Amino acid sequence: MYLLKIVWAIPFVILIFLIAFIFAIIPVWIMRLMGLRKASDRFAYFAATLVCDCFLFLFGCRVHIDGDIHALREMCNSGKKVCIIANHTSMLDIPVVYGAMCIKCGFITKSEYKYVPILNLCCTSLYCVFINRNNPKKGIQSIKEGAALIKQGHPMLIFPEGSRSKDGKIHEFMHGSFRLATLSGSAVVPVVIKGARRALENRKGFFSGSDCYVKIGEFTETAGLDRFQSAAMIESVESYIKREYDSMKGEV
Asked: What is the CATH number of domain 2-247?
C-alpha cells in the first residue's frame, strides 16, 4: 500500500496545510469580506502555486511540460473563457496544474471534499465546484455552476473520467463533463498528464521520485458549435488525450 511508503511525509503535509490555512486562507477570506475580490484572487492563486510546488518537491515529482504553456497561462490570466480537460491518474494532478504549470483556474471536484476541514476552504478560495457524482440532477447543477464561473472569467479544470484512475489507465470519458465548455461557450484545452502517479500512488520506495510529463493540446473554441459539431469535438479531445497518453514517455 502506497501510504506505507509516504508515512514519513504525513507530518509535512499536515504542516503545509496548517501554514496555508493561517497565512493564506484566512487572509484571502478577510480580503473578500472587505470587498477586495481581485486582490484576494491573486493572493489565493499565488498561495496555491507555492503550496502545490511544496507538494511536488516533497514527493520528488519533476514536471516536464510540452506545449504552449505561455499561451494557456495568458488565456487564464486574461479572464478569457477557458475549460481545461485533463486525464486523472494521481492525487498529484492538481498540484501539477497549480504548481508546475502555474495555471489560475478553479476545478470540479467530488462533493466529499466539501466536508473536509481546511481542504474545503482551500477549494472554495479557488472557485472550485463540488459535484455529487451519485446524483445526476445535482451533478448537472454543479456543471451549470462551473459554466457560470467560466462566463465570469474564471477558467475551470475538469477530469471527464469522473474519478481518479486506480490502475493508471485512462477510463472512458463522461461526455456530460464537456457541457462545462459548451454551456459557457469556452475554449477547450486538452491536457495530458503522465508520471505523477509514480511519484505518489505507485512510488518505488520511501524516498524515490519520478518524472511527470505534461502535454498541452490545441485549443478548440466551442462557441457556435451545433450538436453534431460538439459530439465530434468531444470525440476528438478524448481520442487525443488517450493517444498522447499511450505514446508519451513516463512510468504509470
From this structure: 3.40.1130
Task: Please report, for the chain, the start and end positions of each structural domain, with discontinuous segments joined by +.
Answer: 2-247
Alpha-carbon separation of residue 83 from 98, 141, 174, 186, 203 (angstroms): 15, 17, 15, 6, 30
**pLDDT given at position 221:** 96
Q: Kindly compute the dihedral angle of the four CA atoms of residues 113, 119, 122, 127, in this order, to the nearest 10 degrees.
A: 0
Question: pTM here?
Answer: 0.95
Q: In angstroms, how far is CA 130 from the centroid of its own chain?
A: 13
Helix (H) or strand (E) holding 16: helix 10-20
Total residue length of the chain: 252
* Ramachandran angles phi, psi of 189, nearest 5°: -120, 110
Element (H, E) at 210: strand 210-216
Q: Is 237 helix (H, G, I), strand (E, B) or coil?
A: helix
Residue in 242, 165, 156 with CA at minimum distance from that of residue 200:
165
d(CA 250, CA 246): 10
Q: List the grid coordinates of 77.
A: 490570466
As a whole number of angstroms, the distance between CA 40 and CA 32 comes to 6
Q: How confident is the model at residue 79 (pLDDT cuts 50, 70, 90)?
A: confident
Residue 57 belongs to what H/E stretch? helix 37-58
- pLDDT per residue as tens digits for the range 35-71: 999 999 999 999 999 999 999 999 999 999 999 999 9
